Amino acid sequence: MDIEQLLINKISSLYQVSSVEVGQHLYWQIGDFQVHAQVLVTSWVVIAISLGLSVAATRNLQTVPTSSQNLIEYALEFIRDLTRTQMGEEEYRPWVPFIGTLFLFIFVSNWSGALFPWRIIQLPHGELAAPTNDINTTAALALLTSIAYFYAGFHKRGLNYFGKYIQPTPVLLPINILEDFTKPLSLSFRLFGNILADELVVAVLVSSVPLFVPVPMMLLGLFTSGIQALIFATLAAAYIGESMEGHH
Question: What residue ranges are annotated as transmembrane (predicted)?
Answer without folding.
Answer: 35-57, 95-115, 135-154, 191-213, 219-240
